[in-house]
Structures are given as C-alpha cells and as structure tokens.
Amino acid sequence: MTTKKFSQICNTHHDTNKTHKRQLHIAKNIHNKLNRNKAIITQADKGKTVVIIHEHECHKKVRTFLSENNFETMLRDPTNKYQTHVTKTLKQCDLIFHKKTTYTLDTKEPCHTYTEGPAKAP
C-alpha cells in the first residue's frame, strides 16, 4: 500500500461502511507498525512490486548507488542554462521546424530529478 492509498483511505468519511472501517483499522495498524520499526514501503526497481525496508537501509542503498555511479553535487541547478540554450537553438532552426512546432518542443517547466531511488528487489 502506498502513502497515497493510505491517505485516501484515511481521508474518506464512510463511517457507516464496515468494509471501510476495517480497511481504515488495518491501514492505521500498518502505518503504526512501520513507524515503530522505522521502516518504509517503497517501489522495487524491477516490476510492479513494493518492498518494506528499514529507513536506514534504504538511505544506505541510495548513498551507495550515488557514490558507485560517480554522481557529483552541483553548486547550481543547470536546468535554466540548458533550457535557454535549447530555446535559442530551436529558434535558429526555423527552416527545419515551424514556429508553432518550436513552441511545443520547448518545455517551459522541466521536472526535477529525485535523489531517492527505488529499492532493489531480492
């Protein structure tokens, strides 16, 4: 069960529905047990499975992955610089792309990457 699903179950108000009450009770028990044991539910890196893993182990795996793959901390986010360069290049390609097409190729708000990755499935 993901955090989104847990929140969905907790935030719906169906007090008369026995199934909902049972789901809510089970979800709260799972949530409390995870908090007591300092564990998290995360998506595995392969397939559509989820795993329960201790927080410190998850953070350790992420740090190991980052260090083994030569990731470096950057002082500034280079996204705006690259975005400006892409925009200028697209404008120079007016013979290849139509003006309306250039607008759709240019992403104004690119997504940020996440530092936490999925856990490896055994």
Structure, described:
This protein has a two-stranded antiparallel sheet. Strand 1 (39-43) and strand 2 form a beta hairpin. The protein is mainly α. It is elongated. The mean pLDDT is 76. The protein contains five helices and two strands. It has a domain at 75-112. It starts with a helix and ends in a 17-residue tail after the last helix. The protein has helices spanning 3-11, 18-36, 55-68, 79-92, 99-105, and strands spanning 39-43, 50-54.
- Continuous helix count: 5
Helix content: 40-55%
Instruction: Give me the secondary-structure category.
Output: mainly alpha
**Quaternary structure:** single chain
**Order of helical and strand elements:** HHEEHHH
| SS strand fraction | 5-15%
For the biggest sheet, the summary is:
2 strands, antiparallel
Number of strands: 2
* Unreliable runs: none
Cα separation of the termini: 19 Å
Shape: elongated
Q: What is the C-alpha radius of gyration, as a whole number of Å?
A: 22 Å
- What is the typical, i.e. mean, pLDDT? 76
Q: In which order are the strands of the major sheet placed?
A: 1-2
